[in-house]
Amino acid sequence: MLKINLIALTILSSGLIVKIIILEGINLKIENFENITIAYMRRIGKYGYENTLLMEKFKNYLKEHNLFNDNTVILGIALDDPKTTTPSNLRYDVGVIINENDNIQLDTRKIDSGKYAVFEIPHTAEAVSDFWQNIGNLLSSLPADFKKPVIERYSAQKISQHLCEFCIPLK
Asked: Hey, how many other C-beta atoms are within 10 angstroms of the C-beta on 156?
């Protein structure tokens, strides 16, 4: 189980305030997301194992098209709240961050700009499960914007360190 011990640290650097909160096994920083475009694949249906299959299909697509490298950042985005949406209508996107001049034959869309609380956690099934079970406690002192989706972020650099990130939109 994830033990939550908060240690807050605020750094002022070049006019940008970065707040870092350290939890046992979790690091938190606040980031601004601006003008992020992704190329993506979507599936509709119950969240779970099928989302993992979509992630694998997407990574295979990137590899087949020479788009998977050390700079690749993949996002997983659960677009609907399973508490208010029927399982057959739940939407899940898996995308890769692209530049405007990239030529990828997939649908594209923008990620909502704004501030995000970025939680870095171990990339294990247990840590991810603990994160979701404790999300209420983790967000208790943050102005989360639940009108926007939570974004899972998988950079090649973080994955090589057995880490992943969850980005929670803020008001």
From this structure: 13
Q: Which two tokens stand for residue 69?
A: 């490298």
Tokens of 55: 């992630």
Taking alpha carbons only, the member of 107, 108, 118, 106 closest to residue 150 is 118
Higher pLDDT, 102 or 75: 75
| Residue 5 neighbours by CB distance under 10 Å | 9
Task: Specify which residues 168 forms β-bridges with.
Answer: 117
Q: What is the torsion angle, in degrees rounded to the nearest 10, for the CA atoms of residue 117, residue 143, residue 51 and residue 81? A: 180
Which residue in the block uniquely carries the two structure tokens 């970065």? 18
Torsion of CA 73, 25, 116, 40, to 10 degrees: 30
pTM: predicted TM-score of the whole model, two decimal places: 0.81
